[in-house]
Amino acid sequence: MREALNQWHYVLAAYVVGIGGTAAMIAWSWLTMRRAERRRERSRGR
What is 6-41 written as a DSSP string? Predict the structure, then answer.
């Protein structure tokens, strides 16, 4: 008896990795942007 592989597990995993990676990149970019804005404001105040 042979069980066929279900490709939907791979499709779901690809979506999870893709969406998770995109969300992580957005969060990282947002934090970096906020840090740069704070540095800019500090340099303007001096």
Answer: -THHHHHHHHHHHHHHHHHHHHHHHHHHHHHHHHHH
With a CB cutoff of 8 Å and minimum separation 6, the contacts of 40 are none
**pTM here?**
0.71
* Greatest Cα pair distance in the chain: 76
Calpha distance 39→34 (Å, rounded): 9
| pLDDT tens for each residue of 16-45 | 999 999 999 999 999 999 999 999 999 998
Q: Residue 41, exposed/middle/buried by CB under 10 A (0-12, 13-18, 19+)?
A: exposed
